[in-house]
Amino acid sequence: MKTRISQKEIARLANVCQSTVSAVLNPANRGNTKVGAETRELILRIAAEHNYRPNLQSRQLRGDTTSNLVGVLINPQISQFFYDLLLPLERELHNIHKRMLIGLIDNDVKESEATLGNFVDYNLDGVIVLHHDIVDAERLFSEYASVLPQIVYLDPPRGSQEARFVQVDYASGVIEAVKHCVAGGRKRIALCMNDVYNPAMRRRLEGYRIGLLETGIPFDENLLLVRAPASPVEFESLISDAVDQLCVREHADAIIAGNDEWALAILKELHRRDIAVPGDVALIGYGNTLNICRSTMPELASIDHRVGELARKLVETLRTPEFFPDPVQTKLVMRNSADLNSTKTL
Amino acid sequence: MKTRISQKEIARLANVCQSTVSAVLNPANRGNTKVGAETRELILRIAAEHNYRPNLQSRQLRGDTTSNLVGVLINPQISQFFYDLLLPLERELHNIHKRMLIGLIDNDVKESEATLGNFVDYNLDGVIVLHHDIVDAERLFSEYASVLPQIVYLDPPRGSQEARFVQVDYASGVIEAVKHCVAGGRKRIALCMNDVYNPAMRRRLEGYRIGLLETGIPFDENLLLVRAPASPVEFESLISDAVDQLCVREHADAIIAGNDEWALAILKELHRRDIAVPGDVALIGYGNTLNICRSTMPELASIDHRVGELARKLVETLRTPEFFPDPVQTKLVMRNSADLNSTKTL
DNA sequence: CTGAAAGCGCTTACAG
DNA sequence: CTGAAAGCGCTTACAG
Fold this sequence. Notes:
Chain A has 13 helices and 13 strands. By secondary structure, the first copy, chain A, is α/β, with parallel strands linked by helices.
């Protein structure tokens, strides 16, 4: 890298003083100061020749400009959902001429603290927190709140009343899914997922119950399977057990899975046992991971997080102090695995 | 955001002069300057209380520190390959305590120029160019080379002799794939892809020819299908035509696809026609997009780009001026779609 | 119409 | 042991 030219250097070349150069290069700021036409032309020519750009660090130091940087905090073991959100977020920020700076936070408090400190250094315009379910989150964020700029969370953080956030309605898509199955004549609709400890999962369960309630189907606890596998091997047997319980013993005719990976594993297990999808069992995933959903045979219906709208609302909330967005509704995306019109006859 | 405390303010509170504060807070820089124990303790206490952090913009302005920012240029219509590369890249940069700043460049020259100018402003430590097949690339990069820091390209850029880059060996995985098929008894091995205009695609074709040559199988132009679909509809009929030509007329017993999306479409078409995979035709994709390859039945063998090693070499090349890395070898990842041991008997 | 000066926050000579 | 001063690059009063 060669060195960049400064106003001082331009001034030397043009035989004027540095503040004159500044006045010429920032006509807007100094409408009152008139500079002679020849001087102005000369300065502009030299600046253009040397590809002059004002030094951003200097302008930030003066407080004349912000960094135009927005920090985005994610977990290094990022799930597909967050991953799918990053590109829409980058686009939204690009639209308002801001750049995204990714920071990693996790249960390593020292590392997370370093990331937050670093964010302070960069003089960010704002921070978007995608992932805040970490050790000591409350303390960390309240401690750094005073030196960080505006923070917007994805989903409400624990223990902060006045935090600003965009909420995802994890239930709405499940309600839709249940109704879709019932409308297609299914009556034994199962829900199968990882855990109910985090709010996103608990809301899926609530959506399931609401869907059943609104369609007049009684809740049957035997059709609800919640289990957290500790290892890949355990996952395999869990899925096999799940199909045993739900399909063989309980005669489920539809399964909603907590995520697309589970739905995929279930689909494979059903295939292994010659249980037809959607003929015998309709199957609906969660997350609408396109590469998964479009790769299976039949293609996998799934509940979409609407990352585009989510990204838009996150950025809008960051920009507009008085903007309090409605939750982003998750939505069922139909595909063959839940197509109940072309079902085999009873 | 509350305001951050400065050395000046600490000095006021401690009733000392600002340069004393600087000396205490940077003991390494000023081993010669001794400061009284009480004064030092007082200053340190005040700094800690107020969460003091040195102002990065100021230190950059002085030239005492770099930005610790590395710019990464991508295309907004990013392909899966680049997308898969971003997270490993973020991790590699995180390891050396640098952050990634994403910039978008494309055929809109004005926009691309704005991005490059912006990169200059941020006083980056380096730039990694993942995507440089754009209008006016040569002019743009040569123009900004003088004001940008060290640049490392993914694959050699056109028209620059001394550019530093990490090259992906797109051929090696295809050679491996051909040999694998031949070792499994296949003799009619087809290659099916988008175009041969860009080097990455051309190298696939070269790998195909080398693989055939080394296994003593004659090249048959009827088994090579190169066609660029203009629309999704055209893509559908293209895939159908491809299966007609390769499998029905030319009796291909193995197909290598230019990317996983094509492999997936071919797999579905084969399934529709009751052509068994891998029994009748072995199928190998390109890209090893896990969500695709693991979602199909049978699972899809594919050629992996080795993004982990690629990210490592890109960052190492950026850090080490005398480091000229070997190309990153693409590698076949075996899965059932190309499992030739359990083939149905002839 | 143009220049001299102050100040953003910091580090590094140098003076006392 | 501590302070005063210069300077990184810039903008904004203000003086001539």
